[in-house]
Amino acid sequence: MGRVEGKVAFVTGAARGQGRSHAVRLAEEGADIIAVDVCHDIETIGYPMACPEDLDETARLIEKTGQRVVIAQADVREAAQLRTALESGLAEFGKLDIVVAQAGVAGMKGQPPLQAWCDVINTNLVGTINAIQVALPHLGEGASIIATGSTAALMDTAKKDNPGADPGGMAYVHSKRAIATYVHDLATELAPLGIRANVIHPTNTNTPMLQSEPMYRSFRPDLESPTRADAEPVFGVQQAMRIPFVEPEDISNAVLWLASDEARYVTGVQLRVDAGGYLKWYDYSK
């Protein structure tokens, strides 16, 4: 039996990157998947979003595992769209056991800056809350909620000497900090019901969000048009281990563990998958 055999997972941002990786990993271990993604660009975000064909490819990869999948194009900023998407999956599968609120964007260098702030907050924070809250009425004892934070949420940004030192970038940091607080408090309320809620904080992850022109410029502000080759050596500033980034599968393995009964008594946790990045920011002895 797989580690989540017979369970049903609702995954947002599932068309590519971490979301696709999480959905496929859960399917490999026996879960049926309700996979949603916005599948269109957001004007202030300086890199392309996933497209409908990407979501179709996620479905193909899930079906290749032998599991069932329902896909839907839905914008996490709109709770009504998420509710409709979830209900289509519930009509097919009849229950819900796992929520993976993964959808998110990085607004570094977004224009106009204050609209970039709004789009990031609405996608990352409001979108995560929407995904969880449309799912809550359908969750019972043993269910697991997993939200995606970021090690950026744990950084000291007071001096603004970080790659996200602009409104879209700071919205990313703020949204991930707020997610951490929201899930912590929600976990407290859900614990008596036997429902768990946790946050995973990834470091740089090798996805289209990281491998994008705005991110390269954020890490190499000294260059007018930095390339991946220019930026990649600087990506290592985020980690204590000598790597530029982790792979989506590294995060998916943590998602799988939190979704499984192996973590049945793990709740309210802020789980860092950061190659030691937190160690570079804080002295435990203080």
Shape: globular
How big a fraction of the residues is strand?
Answer: 5-15%
- Rounded radius of gyration (Å): 18 Å
Structural class designation: alpha/beta
Distance separating the two termini = 45 Å
According to DSSP, the number of beta strands is: 7
What are the low-pLDDT stretches, counting only 5+ consecutive residues below 50? none
Elements, N to C (H/E): EHEHEHEHEHEHHHE
Largest sheet: 7 strands, parallel
CATH architecture: 3-Layer(aba) Sandwich
Helix content: 25-40%
Task: Provide the CATH superfamily.
Answer: NAD(P)-binding Rossmann-like Domain
CATH class: Alpha Beta
Q: How many domain modules?
A: 1
The DSSP helix count reads 8
Strand order of the largest sheet: 3-2-1-4-5-6-7
Q: What does this entry show, briefly?
A:
With 286 residues, the chain is α/β, with parallel strands linked by helices.
Characteristic terms for this protein:
286 residues, alpha/beta, Rossmann fold, 7 strands, globular
Would you give an account of this structure?
It comes from Mycobacterium celatum. Keywords: NAD, Oxidoreductase. It is a single chain. With 286 residues, the protein is an alpha/beta fold. Helices cover 40% and strands 13% of the residues. It has one domain (8-209, 246-273): Rossmann fold, CATH 3.40.50. A 7-stranded parallel beta sheet has the order 3-2-1-4-5-6-7, sandwiched between helices. Helix 6 packs across helix 7 (228-235).
